[in-house]
Amino acid sequence: MRIKAEARAGVLVICEMKPTGTDPRILSLAAEVAKSPEQNVPVILLKLKEIINNTPVGSSELKKIKQDIYCYDLIQYCLLVLGQDCSRIQGGWTTISQLTQILSHCCVGLDPGEDAEEFYKELLPSAAENFLILERRLQTCFINAAKGEEKDEILHFFQIVTDSLFWLLGGHVQLIQNVLQSDHFLHLLQTDNVQIGSIVMTLLQNILQINSGDLLRIEGKTLHSILDEVIFKILSTPSPVIRSTSTKLLLLMAESHQEILILLRLSACYKGLRNLLNKQETGTEFSQELTQLISLLSPQIYQEVEDQKLHQAACLIQACWKGFQTRKRIKKLPSAVIALQRSFRSKRTKTQLKLNRQKEEEHLRLQLQLQRQRAMRLSRELRLSMLEIVHPGQLEKYNREMEEKSALIIQKYWRGYRERKKFYQQRPSLMEYKAAVTLQRAVLKFLAKCRKRKKQLAPWQRLQELTDARRVELKQQVDDYIRRHSGSQISGVASRELHAQAQEQLQHYFMGRTLEERAQQHREALMAQISTNIEQLMKAPSLKEAEGKEPELFLSRSRPVAAKAKQAHLTTLKHIQAPWWKKLGEEPGDEIDVPKDELSIELGTLFIGGTKPP
């Protein structure tokens, strides 16, 4: 509605004033804008691009066309269209990007005449702000875009809008200060996207090449934010393109302004910048600019000494003068003002300490996060290397062991945390318990001393003598106990025979222990052979991949050998499982009989290679 109302007002001005020498194309275009509905105005305004391109650059005719465009408020219409929602405009971002080109070309080289104040103080700043807002919208669309083709198209529109803004700033350098102080520009500068960040850093570098003096006219907070962002991109951005552009930009700022160079050298905010720059990788495309920047931050020794002497002399003079002024002022000021100053300075110091502590904590948190990421990466690489080393047949066993170890570690830390938590919760009760124990110990000692003192003071009492009746009673109790617990009596001959039998059984046991040790060694050898066979079977190829006589190596065609081996195995098992006291009467060479039924049942489940079932 606003565009339509202003278009009608423009038509009335055209009809009433009828300026002479107006280009008929501009006149017809203005009339068409006034008569067309609001949604068709952006598409109609695109015809200005054809008119401007068909006119020779730098000619008086082009200047006259730009004055006619401004006279008929077509530039204001372009600004109003740029402020609208992109979804309501025909052509979307394509139309908007072309309108930004038209607006920047029309504003550069235009003589506003009598409306110079309105043009320079309202229209141009509004145009620059609209360009920054459009870039912000394009940045949001680029981040939210899912397809690669859509991102490339949005990035192309972002580049067109940025070029239009640079063209406008190149024609009107007074707008550079407004752009540098804008929050939208600072937000664009702080982006994490590599492509958009590279475009914005290049724009800032080109702006400073046009006129770097406006950098010192902006507010100190904004200047510090720009410097912080540029230094952050040099030190932390992995993209070499952004790092190169940021290094060149910081070098340009330091070479152009001595104040910025002094700020980078002496300010506490940038303490240690030179050491961090020295840690950057050498041999890159921007190593030369990085070396120049480091040399700027570290001047020659003689120059440093001279500057230090001058600085110390200035500090001494300032200290003497400020001390004199302070002493003079303190004598005149009441004590209330002194207390106020003291409280203010203490509060300022606490605030500064808090900020420094927050910065240190943030730095420590980032370092811890990087260490965790490195540790996680190393553990994953180690796990992948272990998975490559482990045989595929043992992979499930290895994963199960790793899961058990991980579960044990988690349980260990959780139990430690739980016990520490319980300890801290029970700490007051433990303190109370210790205090109670101390009190009880002191009371018991006191009572013991009291009892000891009473015994010392008490008269000596003789023991009572036993009476005859008491002696008879005790003797009767002793006789009853002996009668109930009479010991078993055995003759000497029986004792000797029992001893001889025990010695004989013990001798048989020691004689059979040597055979058992040999059998144990034989079993260990067989277990080692079985382990070797298992490893060979695991490493053996599958039946599909086997060639030649490889499958025949794992077959046995001797059924008697298998039966004898099974019988020997069962005999050994029965002998091992029998208790030791049953082995005392056996001779070392005796064999244990195995029932045939049990042997046939066991042989039914034995695999004998090379045979077929009946």
Automatic annotation (TrEMBL):
Chief place of localization: cytoplasm
PROSITE patterns per record: IQ (PS50096)
Subcellular location: Cytoplasm, Cytoskeleton, Microtubule organizing center, Centrosome
UniProt keyword list: Calmodulin-binding, Cilium biogenesis/degradation, Coiled coil, Cytoplasm, Cytoskeleton, Repeat
Domain of life: Eukaryota
Gene Ontology molecular functions: calmodulin binding
Record-linked SMART domains: IQ
GO cellular component, one term: photoreceptor connecting cilium
GO biological process per UniProt: cilium assembly
Function: Involved in ciliogenesis. The function in an early step in cilia formation depends on its association with CEP290/NPHP6. Involved in regulation of the BBSome complex integrity, specifically for presence of BBS2 and BBS5 in the complex, and in ciliary targeting of selected BBSome cargos. May play a role in controlling entry of the BBSome complex to cilia possibly implicating CEP290/NPHP6.
PANTHER family per UniProt: IQ CALMODULIN-BINDING MOTIF CONTAINING PROTEIN 1 (PTHR15673), IQ CALMODULIN-BINDING MOTIF-CONTAINING PROTEIN 1 (PTHR15673:SF2)
Protein name: IQ calmodulin-binding motif-containing protein 1
Organism of provenance: Marmota monax
